[in-house]
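quick one: sodium ion bound model?
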Amino acid sequence: RKPITTLRLSQMREQGEKIAILTAYDATFAAVADAAGVDCLMVGDSLGMVCQGRSSTVGVSLESMLYHTQCVTQGLLRTEGRALIIADLPFGTYQQSKDRAIESAIQLMQAGAQMVKLEGGGWTTEIVAFLVERGIPVCAHLGLTPQTVSALGGYRVQGRQAAAADKMRAEASALDDAGASMMVLEMVPAELASRITQAMHACATIGIGAGSGTAGQVLVMHDMLGLNLGRMARFVRNFMHDAGDVQGAFAAYVRAVKDGVFPDKTLHAW
Ligand code: KIV
Ligand code: NA
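yep, here:
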């Protein structure tokens, strides 16, 4: 089993093989998800909610991200895993300046990340270009961006109105041109997510609550195992329901993403 690289991910995008991603925060779950065939593991700042019990991702520190990135990296090293590790730049570690962004990104890379993710469009474009030029692969994130939930007025679908959709499409194209390898589209109408996906030159779109027209999918691992402290998002499927064990649930998710049967038309955010 060959390791997943950014080159392999761009081949998958070009050949239309869907990219299956799950979040991971510790060594054991990382190794199990990898063994189930997950292409990328995302050390998301959602760890603030699922590991730390916070009500949002806003308070997550870089230190916490580094700790969990090291745990996931160690899990893959021990098991000779192949998944590519993506780590979130948490709120307050890239907004200030390009220098601040690259210092934070370097720390995540040194902890084992192979790609960093940051939220937002427009002002992030030059930060993405700055990191990419210096050898740091970047995943962008548009639509519902949890770090700015206060400004967005809650966890709700983004890009419904024509003006907001046009703005998102322009931001996505600018991030593609800036060299982003991937782009999470969260809680975006399926039609808009598909249009953005079609317009990309090199960037692989990864949907969550954004329909099935994207180059790949991501879910929070706890959500797809049916483990949730609050209300389950409407676009999540419980893959544990029909699986015998956790690795079976992860494998069923990978198969459903690759076959294009997850998400189906009933699983959406709007
Ligand atoms: O923090 C996270 O887990 C994420 C993914 C759900 C995209 O940002
Ligand atoms: Na995140």
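The pocket of 3-methyl-2-oxobutanoic acid (ligand 1) is lined by residues 23, 42, 44-46, 88, 184, 208, 218, 220 (CB under 6 Å).
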